[in-house]
Amino acid sequence: MGARQNSSKRRRDRGTLKRLCGSTAVVLFCLLWATMAAAYIIPGPFVIELMTRNLAGAQSLYVEQQVTIDDPAVSDVPVELSEQLRFLLPGRFRSEILHQDSRRILVVSQEGSLTIVDDRVVPGGEGRFDRYKDLLLFPSRDMMHKALLSRGVDVGIVSLGRWQDHLVYVIGAQYPDESVSQLWVDKVRLLPLRWINVFPTGHKAGQSDRLDFLYKDWRNVDGTWYPMRIESLLNQRPIRIIDATHVEANKVIDGELMNIAHLVSLYAAPQEHPPPAEHPADAVDEVEQTIEDFKKKFEP
Questions:
Q1: Does 160 have pLDDT greater than 90?
Q2: Which of 40, 43, 175, 280 is the most exposed place for a label (fewest CB within 10 A)?
Q3: What is the pTM of this model?
């Protein structure tokens, strides 16, 4: 009797051990799978592909926005401007800024860029602060890829990071390194949240300025996404806030509004026909560029 009880007990113990081993194996497998899944990061070009799908739902965009500039180089008090944007996608863009009795037009297309102030062509193309529009201007992987490369973002480097309460793909750097140009994309919604642009200052070797664009309050507008607020920080100091007040997708836009050759013929005197400026890597602040000769008109 005792032998049978011992044998039955041994069988129960072996069964319990098998169940424990099986459960442990399942737990270990789940832990291993979770670790592998967390460690896997999709390549930068694929992140860009997924991001641009969210931004590719329109052929044109018309935006009205209010721009608040808090820059001592411009004025002792914040300056508020009204701005209209027109996007013909991909690659064509027009901005019109109105302030008091002055107007600035910036046009960007495959031909280059052109700045017009008070109905006169002025030297210089787009500036550093104009770059925020690049992420909205190229709704295809190849074009976005090239645009980011031209802005100094190494799309071959990808890491995982955290931005406020968002998990993000960091394209161009190993998180948390912020010393190089990089793009942060929401891991869940696959929309850009932060774009860091690093520029050499030109004053001293090894020194650089950092311009951050923060894209906030994304909203779906007729099948495409648009950020209703864009904040610009220069060396971590807030310097400009853009608040969109009206966004319209697929509005009919006249392509001549982005035709640089046509605009030069309208606004430049015969002896002033400069070739369209190529996108200068060291372009100055757009506000300084805009009001170089018209600064008093932009001061309150």
A1: yes
A2: 40
A3: 0.78
